[in-house]
Amino acid sequence: MKPQESVEEIVSQRMEGDKLHRAIARLPEKQRRCLVLYYFGEFTYEQIAEMEGCTKRAVKFSVTIII
């Protein structure tokens, strides 16, 4: 049985999710689209490159998060 999350954990996760969504929303449209297709749509670099009319390398660069 999975232990129940505390209110603090739930709030923290929600805040992190909101922060992520705001960061994604600030990206240029094409980069945002590539990132969403890759991470949430589970498309490959090759599939996204074909959809976007660009190279696989350009897609990979768009979805690579630099910390």
Our measurement of the CA-to-CA distance between the termini, rounded to an integer number of angstroms, reads: 36 Å
Would you count the extended β strands for me? 0
Low-confidence stretches: none
Structural class: mainly alpha
Question: What's the arrangement of secondary structure elements?
Answer:
Blueprint: H1 7-25, H2 29-39, H3 45-52, H4 56-63
Report on the structure:
With 67 residues, the chain is mainly alpha-helical. Helix content is 69%, strand content 0%. The radius of gyration is 16 Å and the shape is elongated. Helix 3 crosses helix 4.
Brief rundown of the structure:
With 67 residues, the protein is mainly α. The protein has helices spanning 7-25, 29-39, 45-52, 56-63.
Entry keywords:
single chain; mainly alpha; 4 helices; 0% strand
